[in-house]
Give the backbone structure.
Amino acid sequence: MISNVVVRYSRRAQDEVILPSEPLRPGAIRDSNSVMLAAAIHNTGGTTSFMGIMRDDFAAFVAALKKSLSTHDMVVISGGTAVGGRDFISDLIREVGEVVIDGVPMRSGRPLIMGIANGKPIVAVAGHPPEAL
């Protein structure tokens, strides 16, 4: 079942896009999710700030997420939603707030995690581009 949800808000939402990963190495795949996610947010009337690519460092990520939550209405994280040694987004959200959805039944894993912290939504999508949108 497909449904369409309309969200109304009184001012332009300011969203933060954060990508967890190591810096790009030679031969690695370039980020395309930040552009696609920013375009999707812009198409709904929001604005975005790009935090860059985060290292897989839990403490640094917690600090970046707290900073983003203090200055933005919503945070979108791309990548790190799988179950693996370097995938800690569920724990990250629990560190700053509450996990509301921890995975959905999708074919290649559980790419969607949603949470809330300080009354602000945190949406974490898969790093694999077709699953991110």
Observations:
- The chain has a mean pLDDT of 80.
- DSSP finds four helices and six strands in the chain.
- The radius of gyration is 14 Å.
